[in-house]
């Protein structure tokens, strides 16, 4: 065993097969993850990247459980683990606190660990739970900013870790057979229902009442708990959807968030509340790598519909509406009755819309009254009315998570953005090319003729 860090009074190397009581689920899953990290460098690279730590060939990862620190004040709490990442030039350390199942982190607990890390000169605290966050440096609970001046705080959700494992496996990023075996076993373990890893599965308790209030045309209040709960749950589901899409396409998919709101989740929540009150809609956009456009998702509380769509620019090298529509239709393989094609026109002309079967049968069906006008962009939409299922806390989430990957399979994977062709060389006749050259003076011509 390697020498313990100076601040560590006692610690055991993290075990892949920990001998713990059945009641110690949190310590067990934390130990298994921590034991796997030094053995699967590709996974460690992905996880520590979110903390700004680069794992190179000369990096050494040590992980411990049963941690007892030398400085226990101002708290007597015991962390679930400790991570030490060292290189020939530096050392980075982090305390680990894990929750599993429905157990959640709270502000007082997280701040206690931050104070404990500070007292022992430890660089960071990493929390693990089923709570979702937009980014690893966004804690799932509010904490005092003064505590983050000298100690960093990162959060990894268990589902996010499981997704990173699946993506590495799909991309064949791990070539070593023993490391691949461990990665696949860890993935299987994290995805088992008995482990305690949970996804976001239902809206808040006020969801049905909120939907009914919109149906009854009641005025929503920005200060209402039902409105705030709906937006908070939508943001949690948005993060879960991005992970599900990542697993679906085998590449990281991220929610698209305005730059000014990325580092301010509270302001983002306020903006979401204003949008819900004003429009009765919950909306998100996702960035799928190399896709033709953003994937947009909208839940309309008034119509009780879910819409998934992508909007892309029409080909500018096709002059007629028919030619531009045909360009789009050829990319779509199936005429699902839920699919709609929407065309956007120059000026103030409103968009036109038809179902995909009608457009395929008659590409001019989208044409406006102005026959000379051509659409500048198209939007392909999958719209499904959920009826009573929209009111259900679980059924709403179930249908949402069914429709988004369905749209990608039907539409997203087939669309390609239009790009202009590169310019062709200008063809000139030989005579024209010679006449276009500047004439030399008689002296210069004599020098060329005589070779001087």
Automatic annotation (TrEMBL):
Region entry Disordered, spans: 417-452
Start-end of Basic and acidic residues biased regions: 429-442
Biased composition, class Acidic residues, residue ranges: 443-452
The protein's name: Stress response protein
